[in-house]
Amino acid sequence: MKKEFIVERSGRSFALYAGLLEEAHSQGLKSISTTLLQIPSDDNGRVAICQATVQTEKGTFSGLGDAAPENVARPMATCLIRMAETRAKARALRDAVNVGVVALEELAGEGDEAEEGPRPHLAPVPRPAAVAPVAPVMGGNGDGSTATAAQVRAIYAIARNQHGLSEGQTDERCHELFGAAPNELGKRQASEFITTLQAGEAAR
Question: pTM of the entire structure?
Answer without folding.
Answer: 0.57
